[in-house]
Amino acid sequence: MKQPVEIAPNTGKLGVLLVGLGAVSTTFIAGVQAIRKGLAPPIGSLTQMGTVRLGKRTEGRAPLVRDFVPLAGLDDLVFAGWDIFEDDCYAAARTAGVLDADLLDKVRPELEAIRPWPAVFDRKYVKRLDGPNVKRGTNKRDLAEQVIADIRRFRADQQVDRLVMMWCGSTEIFMTESEAHEDLAAFERALEANDPSIPSSMVYAYAALKEGIPFGNAAPNLTTDIPALLDLASDTGSPLAGKDLKTGQTLMKTIIAPGLKARLLGLTGWYSTNILGNRDGEVLDDPESFKTKEESKKSVLDYILQPHLYPDLYGDVCHVVRINYYPPRGDNKEGWDNIDLFGWLGYPMQLKINFLCRDSILAAPIVLDVVLFLDLAKRAGWDGIQEWLSFYFKSPMHAAGLYPEHDLFIQMMKLKNTLRYLRGEELITHLGTEYYD
Ligand SMILES: NC(=O)c1ccc[n+]([C@@H]2O[C@H](COP(=O)([O-])OP(=O)(O)OC[C@H]3O[C@@H](n4cnc5c(N)ncnc54)[C@H](O)[C@@H]3O)[C@@H](O)[C@H]2O)c1
Questions:
Q1: What is the distance of C-alpha 37 from the center of its chain?
Q2: How far apart are CA 205 and CA 216, in angstroms?
Q3: Which of 36, 143, 168, 234 could form a disulfide with 25 if both were Cys (CB 3.0 to 4.6 A apart)?
Q4: Which tens digit of pLDDT belongs to each residue from 204-256?
């Protein structure tokens, strides 16, 4: 047994601040309320249903993750958020159309009690959207201060002990790092000057990090992936996780691709297309928001396949990703993948995947896990990028100079070893020679 990491207790309430009360957020909140009432099990959540093996395979020790590390309990979560629409969480969940009215009615009072605060929003960054519930301010710094005031009011009114913020807002336009992002002083000057290189998501993230609040990013936006906010996170002891929840087609890609590669089967092409009819699909219909998503979805294969190490197998893969906005499907996406592969002596084969998934049903348990693990990281005294949470993201945040780890199974091993490390248990290497001595 090694020395466990000291973790502050999980007593009191955990405030969950959600930027954007759309399909993902409302499915997450309504789900937690339903689970609390015993109406449904927390399927898809590693923190609630997963186990972690400890010690040798012969020891039979495999506690539930939530018994092994001190996580906030579902009864301790209190929700709040911002949105550009005034709908309360019940109305927003009905609009999103993910969960049945029957189920929503059973948690209606709890959902109606959550009314969004006015948002920091600018159409420049999400072109397909507009709404009335928006803050006015003299500049972006003033807007950040208004967000901080919302947080402090909520903390006092609800008497929450700790907080986590998660961006579950729409995907913003594609942006890259610029001068204003280089360090905190430049960033703060840019806030005051209303610099266009600071999108709304960065204003929220700045507010959270200033308050020492962990920040997660469910979307592919640049947001905290800039030196200024990485520095601020480490100065204020705030853990970070992102970006872009790994659900649907990309989840499948990170399950299948490592398998093909493990058997050294070659690829000539991977064509992914899907139809999706929710508001997320509508926003992604704008080429600038789509580009942010496309970059996030496309990098996955390159990193998994390592074409520089396997040029004969993966040196020339044609990877195409399409998202088509098709309103009749709502949140029930349908994805098709055509994979052209080749085996022994170069003989070609094809694999087709037709995934009829529900985006927000796959996303909600991830939001829950990320919120609970970010709070755990904060109590363990960790700050900055939490690479062990890569498991949940399409574009995992990573230290400069490293390549991100995309293989779902390596990501899971990393996550579980991190939990073992936290508790002072032996890390599992899967070497296993001791069983044959
Ligand atoms: N559903 C999934 O499986 C999945 C997977 C990966 C990533 N995501 C990302 O998660 C995000 C949320 O997805 P969704 O399906 O809930 O979308 P959604 O359109 O249903 O919800 C987004 C909400 O954010 C609000 N919003 C936009 N800008 C805002 C701002 N500046 N401040 C406050 N609110 C703002 C919108 O009004 C909307 O209600 C999207 O960026 C999406 O790309 C979702």
A1: 26
A2: 9
A3: 168
A4: 999 999 999 999 999 999 999 999 999 999 999 999 999 999 999 999 999 99
Residues in the chain: 437
Give the DSSP H/E element, type plus range, for residue 325. strand 318-325
Whether the predicted pLDDT of 333 surpasses 80: yes
**173 alpha carbon – ligand 1 mean position (Å):** 13
For residue 167, give the 3-state DSSP assignment. Answer: strand
Ligand 1 atom with the shortest distance to the CA of 25: 16
Q: What is the dihedral of CA 223, 224, 228, 230, to 10 degrees?
A: -170
Ligand 1 contact, 168 CB (< 6 A): yes
End-to-end CA distance of the chain: 22
Q: Ligand 1: does its nearest atom lie under 6 Å from the Cβ of 267? A: no
Q: Is the CB of 325 under 6 A from ligand 1?
A: no
369-428 pLDDT, tens digit each? 999 999 999 999 999 999 999 999 999 999 999 999 999 999 999 999 999 999 999 999
Instruction: Please say if the pLDDT value at position 294 is more than 90.
Output: no
150 lines ligand 1 (CB under 6 A): no
For 37-139, where are the alpha helices, taking DSSP H only?
46-49, 65-68, 89-96, 101-106, 108-112
Q: Which residue has the tokens 């100065």?
A: 235
Note if the bond before 243 is cis, omega within 30 degrees: yes
